[in-house]
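If you are new to this repository, start here. Below is one unmodified record pulled from the training split, so you can see the exact layout before writing a loader.
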Amino acid sequence: MRRKLIQIGKSTLLLSAPREWVKQNSLSKGDEVEVDADNDKLTIWCDSRAKKEKLSIDATEFRNMLPRLLYSVYRSGVDELELRSRDPEFLGSVKSIVWKEALGFELIEQKEGFCRIVNVSGKVEDFGNILRRLFMINLTMADEAVLSIRKNAGIENILYMEQENNRLAAMLLRSINKYGSFGFRKIGPLYYIVQELERIADSYKFISQRLVKKNRNASLKPASISLLADSGTVFRQVYELFYSFNPDRAEKIKSLRNRVIREITEQYAKKPSGDDIVVLNNALSIAARSFDMVTSIIILNF
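And here is the target side for that same chain:
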């Protein structure tokens, strides 16, 4: 849609709002709208963009997929959710999931086979700080995983950090779906980066779960531990690229990613133990997913 600017006075330009948009959002003279200026783009929206969304679902057929259902609904931006189920363990599962994963959600009504969940928080005002915190959690996981394996102690702490990662990532993904890009140039690349930050944390969780269960940290080959550390370095360099973009830095990340993948492949040929395979598989995933974020970072910078 193309609109003409109208000059009012000596220095003011007026842009008229499309009639259909005004009507659709029930706007009238004196109403306030939000305006976000970003280089050559001007985004205008009203409170209707963040109107409360309600949803009612029969969750009986989801059974083991109930956590995935709740994660999806929360991240989509729904503000009020009614759930029904014939599963006798339904309420206990919902309470656990809401408490662990859905920041700002409260279970405000419950009875046999039914519950109502409501979002009691508002718009995230410090999106940028929370996003940086998410990066920092992953950086800490990368350092702590290698240190804990070498010390043969403390690997279980990774599991607690991963839970915090999940909560923050879910909140950011929900915020993007509900409110938009928060000043970033594109919504899609931003959403992808947050998702990858969560998935990279999952890789550290999988390593931790394996080693906590087996209690055999010391059985790992030095090469496996070293490659896990290198994959963490790939992630750290991607973090630095995100906050200080430089094409030369992107080239160095690609070279390091390629070396890590090549050396992991070489280790597979040496018939590693089961524990080593878990570490190598997840180190490969961390390096690959970290580098995959580079494309989105480039999009956000051009």
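Two things worth knowing about this chain: Residues 187-214 form the longest helix (28 residues). The mean pLDDT is 90.
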